Amino acid sequence: MIYFYDKKTNDIVGTIQGKIHNKEQLGMWIGDKEKIGRVVVHWRPTKWYTKTGDELPKECLQACDEQGNLLAFSADFDPECPKELKKLFQEADKNPRILSENFKHDPQSGFVRQKTKEETVATKGFDVASLGGSEDAQNNIREKEARLRTILDPSQPMEKRFETLVELLEVRKKVMSGG
Amino acid sequence: MTPTLAFSKSGINVLTATDPDDFVFHSGYDSLKYYSQGTVTMNVNLANYYNTFTCFTDTIYEHYTVSEVSHNLGYVPYFVGYMFDFPSSGDAIQLPYAFGDACAYANINVYATTTKLYFAAHHTGGNSGTQTFKFSYRIFRNNVGL
Hints:
Shape of chain B: elongated
Number of helices of chain A: 6
Helix content of chain A: 25-40%
Helix content of chain B: under 10%
CATH architecture of the largest domain in chain B: Sandwich
Structural class of chain B: mainly beta
Strand order of the largest sheet of chain A: 2-1-4
Largest interface: A-B, 40 and 47 residues
CATH class of the largest domain in chain B: Mainly Beta
CATH topology of the largest domain in chain B: Immunoglobulin-like
Largest sheet of chain B: 5 strands, antiparallel
Distance between the termini of chain A: 55 Å
Low-confidence stretches of chain B: none
Strand content of chain A: 15-25%
Oligomer: heterodimer
Mean pLDDT of chain A: 86
Strand order of the largest sheet of chain B: 4-5-10-9-8
Order of helices and strands of chain A: EEHEEEEEHHEEHEHH
Structural class of chain A: alpha+beta
């Protein structure tokens, strides 16, 4: 996994997923190299397995079967980072958004640290309220979105979906006529 | 005759099948080749609006922000972009997203050049604080021939 951070704020601005990266992926960048830093979290194999799922001791890694094929078939990987961050990077490997949501880059350790409460509430997600406008306008948008969802939801009874469509058209008609 | 490598779905004879839907893989049909995937978090400083307008009695602030991912493939690849937590927390939508009403709009796009993938957020909003857009991308090696 590779993560990118804003050199000024230490906010995590993006990731490239994966445990093993080729040369091309290592050449990728998110944003401007001058302003955005990069940390490559290396993963190393810790346990090896044969094709049938049996664990293969490290000293047998070069062992082959009768046909000359290597016995080692798959492996468990661990991130190379401070012990207390291992679980985090294992989770981030599946859901990398947890890094930018809850963590910042930590220049001291060279990895990440948990955001403080103040840092967490300082940013807000993109939603209807964030578009601006009066409370009434925002409520209108929310109601419209809710109606559209009902209309498009195949699990809703057809009658209800149709009634909601009529409601939406009535509201639209009123708006168009300036009512 | 061109050699073919094909895997049919369970229960279907690979030697006689002709419908593309009957195969899980067929070398005669092109397929997507994975290149890279990841996330982009766009933090918009709402104090940096580029324009304002008045709608009824409200002042509306307009914002335009772009985040980029370099892919360096040398051609426009096949790609997809997603936005998270919109319209509700936990949702994911495939970009582009467009919304417009009397006093508010949002136009969130993803586009590519031969070297980069761009996420662009053009929208109304307030004039203070930071707003976060959560994106995810998938880039494939396929050259779409544009």
